Amino acid sequence: MPMCFGADYPDCYWSIPPQERADRVEMNQDLCVVDGEHFFIRARIEIPVIDNEEPFCWNVWTTLSEANFVRANAVWNDPQRIKEPPYFGWLQTALPGYLTTLNIKTLVHTQAVGTIPLVEVIEENHPLTIDQQKGITIQRVIEMVEMILHPE
Predict the structure, then answer these.
(1) What share of the chain in percent tops pLDDT 90?
(2) Among 21, 29, 54, 97, which is disulfide-ready with 144 (CB 3.0 to 4.6 Å)?
(3) For 66-122, how does the pLDDT look when each residue is reduced to its tens digit (9 = 90+)?
């Protein structure tokens, strides 16, 4: 069973008309800038699975301030980047199985070079925050995977 799913683009990408994307969006697989003023980083939310060693993961996009985006770029290939304080951001990926996840509060934790940053969801009382803190059952994982692979 797949234990990791994700989004190729931040949610706002889809609001830009296809014919304008080449002019308005700069991106690679890890970083994205829209209109020179909206900054995004790809990262991973890991949710512990009760009685399972492997977490359930979402590859997501979150905003960064311009200053944090510049800083993240500056230390991208620096082994010392693991000492960076977390960057605040707003989640920019809608996740199936949750009522809404767009624009909830996050902290992005830089990892070792070559490793995707980790997202800590900090939106108070949000089901995703609770799932990340307390873990989910394998049955919940199965339900989410079914929802993703076989949408109605």
Answers:
(1) 87
(2) 97
(3) 999 999 999 999 999 999 999 999 999 999 888 899 999 999 999 999 999 999 999
Provide the residue type at 53 as one letter.
E
Q: Identify residue 150 by its one-letter amino acid code.
A: H
What are the DSSP E strand ranges found in 55-151?
56-64, 87-90, 105-109, 118-121
Separation of alpha carbons 31 and 24, rounded Å: 14
Please check whether residue 136 is in contact with residue 98, taking contact to mean a CB–CB distance below 8 angstroms.
no
Q: How many CA atoms lie within 13 A of 67 on its CB side?
A: 3
Measured over the CA atoms of residue 32, residue 3, residue 47 and residue 126, the dihedral's sign is positive
Q: What gap in Å lies between CA 48 and CA 58, rounded to an integer?
A: 12
Question: What is the maximal distance between C-alpha atoms in the chain?
Answer: 48
Pairing mode of beta strands 56-64, 4-6: parallel
- Indicate if the pLDDT at residue 149 is higher than 90: no
CA distance 27 to 4: 22
